[in-house]
Amino acid sequence: MPANALVADPAETAARRGRKQRAKTDDSDCELQLRLLLGGELPEAWIWIPPAQILELRTRVRLRKTLIDQRTAWLQRLQAQLFHQGVPPGLKPRTTVGRRELATLELSPAGREVTELCSRMLDQLDHELAPIDRALGSFARRQPGCRALTSNLYGVGAVTATAILAELGDARRFGSSDDAVRHSSLDITVWQSDRKRAAGHLSHQGPSLLRWALFEAAQCAARGSSPDHGYYLQVANRLDHNRACLSVARKLCRRAHTSSANSATTHSRRPHHR
Length: 274
What we know:
Layout: H1 10-17, H2 26-38, H3 52-84, H4 96-103, H5 109-142, H6 144-152, H7 158-168, H8 177-184, E1 188-191, E2 196-202, H9 208-218, H10 229-238, H11 241-267
Antiparallel strand pairs: 1-2
């Protein structure tokens, strides 16, 4: 016979367990969910169905991130080969001056073969990235949500704005900005169901591209002109640069939630849920 599938909200379900109670086994998790379901108290999770435009944007920004990662890998391989060939550091093979200097280096035959292959791969990846960057830049200039992000969030540009919009989606589906931070997995986890862990770790369960975009924008807080520069210095002096950027990234995620929700409310009626 047909059955209806229900998706429980993890945070709300754990809260129904009570204070200072942790799930020790999968059996206890199932027992709790069954008890809540039979009692009509199971907190259901909303499943947002992204529209076709967002799905297309996700595909494009994720492809761009993949190409960027591949370009970084080829650049690191080239720099490692130059290091093994005894080339002093400082050469920039992605610049015109660096390419001319690379052509004059005395390398072994195998080393020359590796550097030429890496250079061709870098050129090919740059060639493939150019139309994607143009398309994302054009989309960011037209889309109201991207315009709101770039104008309201310091450090967010066309590329990071499209990534935030694609992965965050319709911000009205989140009950609060804290839910948006939890969705990005930038919130701090203190315990897990199977073991304790030290405070300060990220869950790393949300969209990685969203975390990357927020962290990239948060690094601009190190500039003196950033409105978050004072907060960045306060956290960086107490902890370190990376954790200060993570703290600023959480702030940016909350602001992105507000900006996106306001923009979506202005230009559309309601989000799509299932």
